[in-house]
């Protein structure tokens, strides 16, 4: 494996009850990559991220995180990524601080071990930190999930629609944190989103999932070009989705 490769997904199929929802997925992320994962509802974005994060077992193929095969050494591989938990799955009976302490103890780091300052404060969590997560709004829950995912600066950061529900200031701060992580070239980020227009300014790679397969990919140059023309990237995505499956991935 290339030492700069943080995520290597090869021939991955995954789904539920033995039925594949995503199949034939190949992905390689290096240090400094920010991958935007796009796709219509039900196209398999969350399923793919669940397979990459070891929440479901692949039906075929492999996932290697920072050089560790998830199938061979799941616990060691899992220490290579931070995942922002879906707000309904957060432990509502803990305070934000207790949750950060819990995640920090699992990651063997301090509860304020973030690259680039106090992320909890930057996301506006200071006045919520000693209150129960169950009392948080959805957006505030998303913020604590992101802050926890970033603890200990894991090589890979996985955000599944985590920008949803954030107020503009918090979304701006999360984007700044992500861009700084990528600029440090120690980490890679994979972020699924329906906010197509945010992708060219935030990501240097993008893939479009359709019916469980990668239908189209964009590299840094293509995203940079699209970012100069308002609406251009959204148009590319909509065009790709309107093409028959057999035309895609050119
Ligand atoms: N736990 C589950 N058990 C069985 N089927 C599931 C489960 N979770 C998702 N699916 C099915 O897998 C398919 C892909 O769902 P998935 O949530 O991965 O899509 P998505 O692209 O993330 O969608 P969205 O944009 O709506 O969040 C859907 O048909 C869905 O019904």
Automatic annotation (TrEMBL):
Domain ABC transporter: 7-236
Gene3D superfamilies according to UniProt: P-loop containing nucleotide triphosphate hydrolases
GO MF terms held by the record: ATP binding
Keyword terms: ATP-binding, Nucleotide-binding, Transport
SMART domains xrefs: AAA
InterPro entries for the chain: AAA+_ATPase, ABC_transporter-like_ATP-bd, ABC_Transporter_VariousFunc, P-loop_NTPase
Highest taxon in the source lineage: Bacteria
Protein name: ABC transporter ATP-binding protein
């Amino acid at each position: 494996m290339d030492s700069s490769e943080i995520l290597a997904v090869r021939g991955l199929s995954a789904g539920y009850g033995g039925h594949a929802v995503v199949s034939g997925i190949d992905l390689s992320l290096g240090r400094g990559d920010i991958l935007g994962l796009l796709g219509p509802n039900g196209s398999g974005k969350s399923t793919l991220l669940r397979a990459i994060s070891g929440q479901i077992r692949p039906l075929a193929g492999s996932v290697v995180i920072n050089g560790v095969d998830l199938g061979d050494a799941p616990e060691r591989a899992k220490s290579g990524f931070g995942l922002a938990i879906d707000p309904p799955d957060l432990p509502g009976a803990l305070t934000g601080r207790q949750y950060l302490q819990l995640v920090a103890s699992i990651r063997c780091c301090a509860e304020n071990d973030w690259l680039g300052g106090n992320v909890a404060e930057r996301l506006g969590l200071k006045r919520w930190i000693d209150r129960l997560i169950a009392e948080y709004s959805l957006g505030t829950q998303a913020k604590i999930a992101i802050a926890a995912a970033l603890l200990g600066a894991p090589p890979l950061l996985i955000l599944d629609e985590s920008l949803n529900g954030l107020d503009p200031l918090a979304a701006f701060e999360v984007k700044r944190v992500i861009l700084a992580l990528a600029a440090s070239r120690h980490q890679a980020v994979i972020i699924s989103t329906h906010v197509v227009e945010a992708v060219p300014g935030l990501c240097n790679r993008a893939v479009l999932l359709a019916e469980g397969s990668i239908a189209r990919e964009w590299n840094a140059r293509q995203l940079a070009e699209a970012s100069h023309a308002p609406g251009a990237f959204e148009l590319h995505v909509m065009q790709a989705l309107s093409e028959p499956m057999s035309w895609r991935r050119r």
